Amino acid sequence: MERREFTASLVAGGCAGMCVDLTLFPLDTIKTRLQSQQGFYRAGGFRGIYAGVPSAAVGSFPSAAAFFVTYESAKSLLGVSSSPYMAPVTHMVAASLGEIVACLIRVPTEVVKQRTQACPSSSSYRELVRTLGEEGFKGLYRGYRSTVLREIPFSLVQFPLWEYLKSLWSLRQGHALYSWQSAVCGAFAGGVAAFVTTPLDVAKTRIMLAKAGTRTASENIALVLYDVWKSRGLTGIFAGSIPRMAFISMGGFIFLGAYEKVRSTLL
């Protein structure tokens, strides 16, 4: 990847991530509280809907930028195959690598953000200090594995579907897509991926919010989902799916549309 392309991906990815995370933050808070073990209203209900937003603001730009730089670099290194069957594989591998790198930045801010969302009387700073005091630095990476195991299947669905829809639409109309068209494809792809991966998101949220030393904090995703199934059934497994789909569909429209627009402007 050329230096100009690297810079464009870095800036475009960061700007797109900031736009989504800050604009749609209330939906993310509602989703977290629906998935929390204590239940929606005990976790704060509709109060303090912006609790945890400082943490999201700190991690948003660098994690999104890291994802897209890795994604575009991996696509460039893997090369564009002439075979239509290999293109989705390239996008899947590139997106998976992007998520692994981005999660190194995203998970600590996600831990602090979700704990603040589930306890609106607290603050991002207090939750950061409490986590470091009780669990040390490794406490900030509680849920890293479950986050990666959520993000990789998500990307395996979203990005190949996004790229496929773009290529199909572009072929139909005979020229490259406009930014809004790319955004529409992103919204649809994101909504599908969001619903499919909701159970993994529920497990990730439970693990991040669990008290240190408990069974849930052990990061055994299968065990966490089994406990959710026993206590709340299928509705518990898919808790928060509607706000999650709304967040990611609207987020996909803003995120991927803004990314394409900023990147094409800089190139």
From TrEMBL:
One Gene Ontology cellular component annotation held by this UniProt entry: mitochondrial inner membrane
Catalytic reaction list: S-adenosyl-L-homocysteine(out) + S-adenosyl-L-methionine(in) = S-adenosyl-L-homocysteine(in) + S-adenosyl-L-methionine(out)
Domain of life of the native organism: Eukaryota
Segments crossing the lipid bilayer: 6-27, 48-69, 89-107, 176-196, 237-259
GO terms of biological process kind: transmembrane transport
Gene3D superfamilies: Mitochondrial carrier domain
Secretion signal, residue range per the UniProt entry: none
InterPro entries for the chain: MCP (IPR002067), MCP_dom_sf (IPR023395), MCP_transmembrane (IPR018108)
Lipid bilayer topology: Multi-pass membrane protein
The keyword Calcium is assigned to this record: no
Keywords: Membrane, Mitochondrion, Mitochondrion inner membrane, Repeat, Transmembrane, Transmembrane helix, Transport
Intracellular or extracellular location(s): Mitochondrion inner membrane
Solcar repeats: 4-77, 86-168, 177-265
Function: Mitochondrial S-adenosyl-L-methionine/S-adenosyl-L-homocysteine antiporter. Mediates the exchange of cytosolic S-adenosyl-L-methionine, the predominant methyl-group donor for macromolecule methylation processes, for mitochondrial S-adenosylhomocysteine(SAH), a by-product of methylation reactions.
Family classification: Belongs to the mitochondrial carrier (TC 2.A.29) family.
UniProt name for this protein: Mitochondrial S-adenosylmethionine carrier protein
